[in-house]
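Recall from the previous lesson that a structure prediction takes nothing but the amino acid sequence as input. Here we apply that procedure to Enoyl-CoA hydratase from Aquincola agrisoli. The sequence below is the only information supplied.
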Amino acid sequence: MTYEQITVHHEGPVAIVTLARPDRMNALTKVLEAELRSAIEAAGRDAAVRAIVLTGAGRAFCAGMDMEELEVLPPEDIRAESWMRPYDMNRRADWQTRYSYFPAAPKPIISAINGAAAGLGLVMALYSDFRIASDKAVFATAFAKRGLIAEHGIAWMLPRVVGHAHATDLLMTSRKVDAAEALAMGLVHRVVPAGRLMADALALADSLSTEVSPRSVAVMKRQLWEAPFQGLGEAVAMANAEMVDSLRSEDFKEGVAHFVEKRAPRFTGR
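The prediction returns the following tokens.
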């Protein structure tokens, strides 16, 4: 598929999605949002893809919504049906919302944060499974400085990532946080020199693609995203049901076989 405001290319089993509006710091437009959703959902369906890396072209990851579009955005756009996920009876209602295609994708998503991640750029990073930041990255919620509120579930996600005190600080002050402080508060998983960012992100994606069962990763991702909505009993019941299925899977047999035979695994995802 041809895109206007993103690029997608594959390196083996890894899909690399790049926001491609560097002259606008990869600020979001309706076109970019629609293309990004299409690309991630397509990678999620592609049996050849085992991990997704999301990054930005140029000096920014994503500076939030493009101000020219935000200025004329109808207030009701936030609830437009066109942005919602098609209703899926196999997913809880929480995954039918605007950006829930990130946690709903069965593949791990790694945000390689090369520069500014502000507003919706930070929201997208939080919806990702891994966040690797360049030492040049900077983070801000930005909403309060625009007269807006904590959008798209960030008031739910951010405290779970950095704790209530840090979330209150970041949301209400909208101050900028550099990569070192982001790492100290747990906002990102690791910080690497700018020149190593994509190499490190791709190394993680390759490890997730070749060393572990894609079936296990998909189930664990769903468990991790659903656990905050569950009681302990429900989480255990879900784990027990999934354990029965995993013990019957081809990947379980291969997991034992490659360990016993002392060779690299050949997981199929089945």
